[in-house]
Amino acid sequence: MTSTTDANTDTPGATGTPEASGTYGELRAQLATLTTEAFRPELAEIDRLSTEEIARIMNGEDATVPAAVAERLPQIAAAIDATAERMARGGRLIYAGAGTAGRLGVLDASECPPTFNTDPAEVVGLIAGGPSAMVTAVEGAEDSKELAAADLDALKLTADDTVVGISASGRTPYAIGAVEHARAQGALTIGLSCNADSALAAAAEHGLEVVTGPELLTGSTRLKAGTAQKLVLNMISTVTMIRLGKTYGNLMVDVRASNEKLRARSRHIVSLATGASDAAIEAALAATDGEVKNAILVVLGQVDGPTAARLLTESDGHLRAALAAVRTT
Fold first, then answer.
1. pLDDT at residue 7 above 50?
2. Among all residues, which ones are annotated catalytic?
3. End-to-end CA gap in the chain
4. Phi, psi values for residue 294, rounded to 5°
5. For the residues 190-200, what does the mean pLDDT come to?
6. What pLDDT sits at residue 13?
7. How many Å apart are CA 168 and CA 161, to the nearest integer?
8. Regarding predicted confidence, which is higher, 143 or 208?
Protein backbone atom coordinates (compact mmCIF):
# COMPACT_ATOMS: atom_id res chain seq x y z
CA MET A 1 0.00 0.00 0.00
CA THR A 2 3.02 2.28 -0.12
CA SER A 3 4.82 3.82 -3.04
CA THR A 4 7.20 1.45 -4.75
CA THR A 5 9.30 4.26 -6.26
CA ASP A 6 12.57 4.94 -4.44
CA ALA A 7 13.47 8.61 -4.18
CA ASN A 8 16.75 10.14 -5.26
CA THR A 9 18.23 11.15 -1.93
CA ASP A 10 20.66 13.72 -3.36
CA THR A 11 19.70 17.22 -2.23
CA PRO A 12 20.50 20.03 -4.69
CA GLY A 13 22.73 22.80 -3.40
CA ALA A 14 25.38 21.69 -0.95
CA THR A 15 25.44 23.44 2.41
CA GLY A 16 27.50 26.61 2.34
CA THR A 17 27.20 27.28 -1.40
CA PRO A 18 25.47 30.43 -2.72
CA GLU A 19 22.76 28.20 -4.22
CA ALA A 20 22.09 26.58 -0.86
CA SER A 21 22.11 29.91 0.94
CA GLY A 22 19.51 31.34 -1.44
CA THR A 23 17.38 28.21 -1.34
CA TYR A 24 17.36 27.96 2.44
CA GLY A 25 16.77 31.68 2.87
CA GLU A 26 13.68 31.45 0.69
CA LEU A 27 12.48 28.34 2.51
CA ARG A 28 13.02 29.96 5.92
CA ALA A 29 10.93 32.90 4.77
CA GLN A 30 8.15 30.53 3.71
CA LEU A 31 8.25 28.62 6.99
CA ALA A 32 8.12 31.89 8.95
CA THR A 33 4.63 32.52 7.54
CA LEU A 34 3.21 29.18 8.74
CA THR A 35 1.35 28.96 12.02
CA THR A 36 2.49 25.36 12.42
CA GLU A 37 6.09 26.63 12.53
CA ALA A 38 5.51 29.56 14.91
CA PHE A 39 7.61 29.88 18.08
CA ARG A 40 5.80 30.10 21.41
CA PRO A 41 7.85 32.15 23.86
CA GLU A 42 5.59 31.18 26.76
CA LEU A 43 6.89 27.62 26.41
CA ALA A 44 10.56 28.55 26.06
CA GLU A 45 11.42 27.04 29.46
CA ILE A 46 9.13 24.01 29.28
CA ASP A 47 12.14 21.77 29.85
CA ARG A 48 12.38 23.16 33.39
CA LEU A 49 8.90 21.97 34.32
CA SER A 50 8.05 18.68 35.97
CA THR A 51 7.08 15.74 33.82
CA GLU A 52 3.47 15.94 35.00
CA GLU A 53 3.30 19.67 34.21
CA ILE A 54 4.59 19.08 30.69
CA ALA A 55 2.12 16.23 30.21
CA ARG A 56 -0.76 18.45 31.36
CA ILE A 57 0.24 21.21 28.94
CA MET A 58 0.53 18.72 26.11
CA ASN A 59 -2.85 17.19 26.95
CA GLY A 60 -4.39 20.63 26.93
CA GLU A 61 -2.90 21.32 23.53
CA ASP A 62 -4.27 18.06 22.16
CA ALA A 63 -7.75 18.92 23.46
CA THR A 64 -7.92 21.86 21.04
CA VAL A 65 -7.63 19.67 17.95
CA PRO A 66 -11.23 18.37 17.68
CA ALA A 67 -12.53 21.95 17.71
CA ALA A 68 -10.24 22.81 14.80
CA VAL A 69 -11.57 19.81 12.89
CA ALA A 70 -15.16 20.76 13.74
CA GLU A 71 -14.73 24.11 12.02
CA ARG A 72 -14.16 22.29 8.74
CA LEU A 73 -16.90 19.64 8.97
CA PRO A 74 -19.02 21.03 6.10
CA GLN A 75 -16.01 20.95 3.76
CA ILE A 76 -14.96 17.51 5.02
CA ALA A 77 -18.49 16.16 4.45
CA ALA A 78 -18.57 17.52 0.90
CA ALA A 79 -15.23 15.86 0.15
CA ILE A 80 -16.46 12.55 1.58
CA ASP A 81 -19.67 12.59 -0.48
CA ALA A 82 -17.65 13.23 -3.63
CA THR A 83 -15.23 10.43 -2.71
CA ALA A 84 -18.04 7.94 -2.05
CA GLU A 85 -19.64 8.79 -5.37
CA ARG A 86 -16.41 7.99 -7.21
CA MET A 87 -15.74 4.83 -5.23
CA ALA A 88 -19.27 3.59 -5.93
CA ARG A 89 -18.27 3.68 -9.60
CA GLY A 90 -15.22 1.54 -8.92
CA GLY A 91 -12.72 4.27 -8.09
CA ARG A 92 -9.99 4.09 -5.50
CA LEU A 93 -9.06 6.25 -2.52
CA ILE A 94 -5.38 7.20 -2.69
CA TYR A 95 -3.48 9.07 0.01
CA ALA A 96 -0.21 10.83 -0.83
CA GLY A 97 2.15 12.52 1.60
CA ALA A 98 5.68 12.71 2.95
CA GLY A 99 7.06 11.98 6.39
CA THR A 100 4.46 11.86 9.17
CA ALA A 101 1.67 12.85 6.77
CA GLY A 102 2.56 10.01 4.43
CA ARG A 103 2.76 7.52 7.28
CA LEU A 104 -0.69 8.53 8.51
CA GLY A 105 -2.08 7.96 5.03
CA VAL A 106 -0.49 4.52 4.81
CA LEU A 107 -1.81 3.70 8.29
CA ASP A 108 -5.38 4.63 7.39
CA ALA A 109 -5.20 2.71 4.11
CA SER A 110 -3.80 -0.41 5.78
CA GLU A 111 -6.69 -0.54 8.25
CA CYS A 112 -9.39 -0.67 5.58
CA PRO A 113 -9.03 -4.32 4.42
CA PRO A 114 -9.54 -5.89 7.87
CA THR A 115 -12.19 -3.36 8.93
CA PHE A 116 -14.24 -3.09 5.75
CA ASN A 117 -13.13 -6.11 3.72
CA THR A 118 -11.81 -3.86 0.97
CA ASP A 119 -9.28 -5.08 -1.56
CA PRO A 120 -5.81 -3.70 -0.68
CA ALA A 121 -5.86 -1.91 -4.04
CA GLU A 122 -9.05 0.01 -3.19
CA VAL A 123 -7.53 2.27 -0.54
CA VAL A 124 -3.85 3.01 -1.13
CA GLY A 125 -1.25 4.97 0.80
CA LEU A 126 1.68 6.55 -1.06
CA ILE A 127 4.61 7.91 0.93
CA ALA A 128 7.41 9.93 -0.64
CA GLY A 129 10.47 7.72 -0.91
CA GLY A 130 8.66 4.40 -0.99
CA PRO A 131 8.18 1.71 1.67
CA SER A 132 11.51 2.37 3.39
CA ALA A 133 10.29 5.88 4.26
CA MET A 134 7.76 4.35 6.66
CA VAL A 135 10.55 3.74 9.18
CA THR A 136 13.50 5.80 7.93
CA ALA A 137 13.49 9.37 6.63
CA VAL A 138 14.33 9.52 2.91
CA GLU A 139 15.96 12.89 2.51
CA GLY A 140 14.84 14.94 -0.46
CA ALA A 141 11.89 12.72 -1.37
CA GLU A 142 9.28 15.21 -0.19
CA ASP A 143 10.74 17.90 -2.46
CA SER A 144 9.83 16.11 -5.70
CA LYS A 145 6.57 16.73 -7.52
CA GLU A 146 7.84 14.44 -10.26
CA LEU A 147 8.16 11.55 -7.80
CA ALA A 148 4.51 11.96 -6.84
CA ALA A 149 3.44 11.94 -10.49
CA ALA A 150 5.48 8.79 -11.11
CA ASP A 151 3.96 7.04 -8.10
CA LEU A 152 0.45 7.83 -9.33
CA ASP A 153 1.28 6.77 -12.87
CA ALA A 154 2.43 3.42 -11.48
CA LEU A 155 -1.10 2.97 -10.12
CA LYS A 156 -2.64 3.73 -13.53
CA LEU A 157 -4.77 6.56 -12.16
CA THR A 158 -8.31 6.94 -13.53
CA ALA A 159 -10.92 9.70 -13.44
CA ASP A 160 -12.94 7.68 -10.89
CA ASP A 161 -10.11 7.77 -8.35
CA THR A 162 -9.76 10.19 -5.45
CA VAL A 163 -6.33 11.49 -4.45
CA VAL A 164 -5.84 13.05 -1.03
CA GLY A 165 -2.68 15.10 -0.69
CA ILE A 166 -1.62 15.36 2.97
CA SER A 167 0.79 17.98 4.31
CA ALA A 168 0.78 19.79 7.64
CA SER A 169 2.50 22.82 6.15
CA GLY A 170 0.44 22.71 2.96
CA ARG A 171 3.58 23.44 0.95
CA THR A 172 5.17 19.97 0.58
CA PRO A 173 6.00 19.51 -3.13
CA TYR A 174 5.26 15.75 -3.11
CA ALA A 175 1.70 16.27 -1.82
CA ILE A 176 1.06 19.25 -4.10
CA GLY A 177 2.50 17.38 -7.07
CA ALA A 178 0.22 14.41 -6.39
CA VAL A 179 -2.85 16.63 -6.32
CA GLU A 180 -1.84 18.61 -9.41
CA HIS A 181 -1.09 15.47 -11.41
CA ALA A 182 -4.30 13.73 -10.29
CA ARG A 183 -6.43 16.76 -11.12
CA ALA A 184 -4.91 16.96 -14.57
CA GLN A 185 -5.97 13.33 -15.08
CA GLY A 186 -9.56 14.15 -14.10
CA ALA A 187 -9.42 12.45 -10.68
CA LEU A 188 -11.10 13.95 -7.64
CA THR A 189 -8.59 15.80 -5.47
CA ILE A 190 -8.54 16.68 -1.78
CA GLY A 191 -5.82 18.74 -0.10
CA LEU A 192 -5.49 18.28 3.68
CA SER A 193 -3.28 20.78 5.47
CA CYS A 194 -3.00 22.54 8.83
CA ASN A 195 -2.29 26.08 7.64
CA ALA A 196 -4.62 28.65 6.12
CA ASP A 197 -4.24 29.77 2.51
CA SER A 198 -2.04 26.80 1.66
CA ALA A 199 -0.77 25.93 -1.79
CA LEU A 200 -2.04 22.37 -1.30
CA ALA A 201 -5.62 23.45 -0.63
CA ALA A 202 -5.48 25.84 -3.59
CA ALA A 203 -4.33 23.03 -5.89
CA ALA A 204 -7.13 20.67 -4.87
CA GLU A 205 -10.80 20.61 -5.75
CA HIS A 206 -11.59 20.18 -2.06
CA GLY A 207 -9.23 22.11 0.20
CA LEU A 208 -9.41 21.05 3.86
CA GLU A 209 -7.42 23.43 6.04
CA VAL A 210 -7.60 22.36 9.68
CA VAL A 211 -5.65 25.10 11.42
CA THR A 212 -4.25 23.70 14.67
CA GLY A 213 -1.85 26.55 15.48
CA PRO A 214 1.73 26.50 16.78
CA GLU A 215 3.01 23.26 18.22
CA LEU A 216 4.24 22.53 21.75
CA LEU A 217 7.66 21.90 20.19
CA THR A 218 8.26 24.47 17.48
CA GLY A 219 7.66 22.92 14.07
CA SER A 220 7.01 19.37 15.37
CA THR A 221 3.93 18.78 13.24
CA ARG A 222 3.64 15.13 14.26
CA LEU A 223 1.87 16.55 17.33
CA LYS A 224 -1.36 18.59 16.97
CA ALA A 225 -1.18 18.73 13.19
CA GLY A 226 -0.58 14.98 13.01
CA THR A 227 -3.51 14.33 15.34
CA ALA A 228 -5.78 16.52 13.21
CA GLN A 229 -4.72 14.75 10.03
CA LYS A 230 -5.43 11.35 11.58
CA LEU A 231 -8.89 12.47 12.71
CA VAL A 232 -9.76 13.74 9.24
CA LEU A 233 -8.39 10.66 7.48
CA ASN A 234 -10.42 8.47 9.87
CA MET A 235 -13.50 10.45 8.83
CA ILE A 236 -12.78 10.22 5.12
CA SER A 237 -12.30 6.46 5.08
CA THR A 238 -14.92 5.53 7.70
CA VAL A 239 -17.77 7.73 6.48
CA THR A 240 -17.03 6.82 2.86
CA MET A 241 -17.34 3.14 3.77
CA ILE A 242 -20.61 3.82 5.60
CA ARG A 243 -21.93 5.53 2.46
CA LEU A 244 -20.83 2.50 0.41
CA GLY A 245 -22.85 0.11 2.59
CA LYS A 246 -19.90 -1.38 4.44
CA THR A 247 -21.78 -1.07 7.73
CA TYR A 248 -25.24 -1.88 9.08
CA GLY A 249 -25.99 0.83 11.58
CA ASN A 250 -22.74 1.12 13.50
CA LEU A 251 -21.82 -2.55 12.98
CA MET A 252 -18.84 -3.52 10.81
CA VAL A 253 -20.70 -6.08 8.75
CA ASP A 254 -17.95 -6.31 6.13
CA VAL A 255 -15.27 -7.15 8.68
CA ARG A 256 -12.76 -9.70 7.40
CA ALA A 257 -12.38 -12.52 9.94
CA SER A 258 -8.68 -13.17 9.42
CA ASN A 259 -7.78 -14.14 12.99
CA GLU A 260 -9.36 -15.55 16.13
CA LYS A 261 -10.29 -12.14 17.56
CA LEU A 262 -12.02 -11.12 14.34
CA ARG A 263 -13.81 -14.46 14.08
CA ALA A 264 -15.20 -13.91 17.57
CA ARG A 265 -16.10 -10.34 16.64
CA SER A 266 -17.92 -11.61 13.54
CA ARG A 267 -20.17 -13.80 15.65
CA HIS A 268 -20.78 -10.94 18.07
CA ILE A 269 -21.78 -8.65 15.20
CA VAL A 270 -24.24 -11.19 13.80
CA SER A 271 -25.68 -11.61 17.29
CA LEU A 272 -26.10 -7.85 17.79
CA ALA A 273 -27.74 -7.44 14.38
CA THR A 274 -30.11 -10.39 14.64
CA GLY A 275 -30.51 -11.51 18.24
CA ALA A 276 -30.21 -15.08 16.95
CA SER A 277 -29.06 -18.05 19.00
CA ASP A 278 -25.47 -19.25 18.81
CA ALA A 279 -26.58 -22.28 16.81
CA ALA A 280 -28.44 -20.14 14.27
CA ILE A 281 -25.42 -17.81 13.96
CA GLU A 282 -23.04 -20.70 13.30
CA ALA A 283 -25.42 -22.16 10.72
CA ALA A 284 -25.76 -18.80 8.92
CA LEU A 285 -22.01 -18.24 8.85
CA ALA A 286 -21.46 -21.77 7.57
CA ALA A 287 -24.01 -21.15 4.80
CA THR A 288 -22.25 -17.94 3.74
CA ASP A 289 -18.57 -18.95 3.98
CA GLY A 290 -18.17 -16.75 7.05
CA GLU A 291 -19.42 -13.54 5.40
CA VAL A 292 -20.98 -11.50 8.20
CA LYS A 293 -23.25 -9.35 6.05
CA ASN A 294 -24.57 -12.36 4.18
CA ALA A 295 -25.12 -14.26 7.41
CA ILE A 296 -27.21 -11.41 8.83
CA LEU A 297 -29.34 -11.43 5.67
CA VAL A 298 -29.78 -15.19 5.94
CA VAL A 299 -31.10 -14.82 9.49
CA LEU A 300 -33.19 -11.66 9.14
CA GLY A 301 -34.40 -12.33 5.63
CA GLN A 302 -34.88 -16.07 6.14
CA VAL A 303 -33.16 -16.87 2.86
CA ASP A 304 -30.43 -19.33 1.96
CA GLY A 305 -26.79 -18.44 1.38
CA PRO A 306 -26.85 -18.16 -2.43
CA THR A 307 -30.00 -16.03 -2.31
CA ALA A 308 -28.38 -13.72 0.23
CA ALA A 309 -25.33 -13.34 -2.01
CA ARG A 310 -27.52 -12.54 -5.03
CA LEU A 311 -29.61 -9.98 -3.17
CA LEU A 312 -26.53 -8.21 -1.86
CA THR A 313 -25.01 -8.11 -5.33
CA GLU A 314 -28.21 -6.61 -6.71
CA SER A 315 -28.23 -3.99 -3.93
CA ASP A 316 -24.54 -3.06 -4.47
CA GLY A 317 -23.67 -4.48 -1.07
CA HIS A 318 -26.15 -2.40 0.95
CA LEU A 319 -27.68 -4.69 3.57
CA ARG A 320 -30.68 -2.47 4.29
CA ALA A 321 -31.58 -2.43 0.59
CA ALA A 322 -31.23 -6.20 0.37
CA LEU A 323 -33.49 -6.66 3.40
CA ALA A 324 -36.05 -4.32 1.86
CA ALA A 325 -35.96 -6.39 -1.33
CA VAL A 326 -36.69 -9.56 0.67
CA ARG A 327 -39.62 -7.95 2.44
CA THR A 328 -41.22 -6.73 -0.79
CA THR A 329 -41.10 -10.10 -2.56
1. no
2. 111, 142
3. 42
4. -65, -40
5. 97
6. 39
7. 23
8. 208
